[in-house]
Design goal:
By secondary structure, the protein is α+β, with helices and mostly antiparallel strands. Helix content is about 15%, strand content about 30%. It folds into two domains: about 100 residues, Tumour Suppressor Smad4; about 90 residues, Winged helix-like DNA-binding domain superfamily/Winged helix DNA-binding domain (Arc Repressor Mutant, subunit A, Orthogonal Bundle), CATH 1.10.10.10.
């Protein structure tokens, strides 16, 4: 059995995903125009190339790639550029908790909901094919009736969040945390975003989706959902 990571937190993936470490090197980060890490997270606090995992015969080595907001292992800061050997059950924390993963060694298997045989996590996300609304996660593209729709970064983040939880109501606080991570936090550690601003973004997204905009339903006072 190969080494793997269990995702505890990190949009757009669900907690519990198992990420197989089957390649010699794996970069964790955030996709940009010219940067495509092996495992990409949708959070602006994650650097384009945040950290590197090197998979050797007898050990897994983690190196922080001089990320802006840092990497922790078991709450201990990792010195940028200095490799450290991971041990079974180590918790890897990126950007002060924006992403949390747990390392599992083959001698100590653990339960998880899904195993990925390669480092392209996007390919393992299971979304419905409605024939009318499609998302290309890797290319960050949206298609309605096979026509590509241009979305702003925040419109894309909102749609991806709703799409990943289709037919489930997404609470306004989760929308705030996912779409506006750069905002100042309230006393409840939720980004300071008013309901009017959220509703305006939902309205713009519905307009962009045209005939499929009606798939986005409001749950008054709670949140919204994508009905597929």
């Amino acid at each position: 059995m190969a080494n793997y990571l269990i995702l505890e937190k990190g949009f757009p993936y669900e907690p519990g995903y198992r990420i197989g470490l089957t390649h010699e090197q794996i970069v964790l980060g955030r996709t940009g125009h010219t940067v495509k890490p092996d495992i990409s997270f949708e959070n602006k606090f994650i650097s384009r190339k945040h950290c590197l995992l090197q998979i050797n015969v007898n050990e897994i080595v983690l190196t922080d790639l001089h990320s802006k907001h840092g990497t922790l292992v078991n709450k201990q800061p990792v010195t940028p550029g200095t490799p450290i050997v991971l041990k079974h059950n180590d918790r890897i924390i990126l950007a002060q908790g924006a992403v949390v993963l747990r390392y599992i060694s083959p001698e100590n298997p653990d339960d998880a909901t899904l195993e990925l045989s390669n480092t392209n996590v996007h390919s393992a996300l299971s979304f419905p094919d409605t024939g009318k609304l499609k998302l290309d996660i890797q290319k960050r593209q949206c298609f309605v009736n096979n026509n590509r729709i241009a979305l702003s970064p925040k419109e894309w983040q909102l749609l991806l969040l709703l799409y990943s939880k289709f037919n489930q109501t997404v609470h306004y606080d989760q929308i705030r945390t996912t779409v506006w991570p750069e905002r100042i936090l309230t006393a409840n550690e939720i980004p300071n975003v008013g309901l009017e601003e959220i509703n305006l973004l939902i309205y713009r997204l519905r307009q962009k989706l045209g005939s499929q905009g009606s798939l986005i339903k409001n749950s008054r006072g709670v949140g919204c959902l994508l009905e597929l």
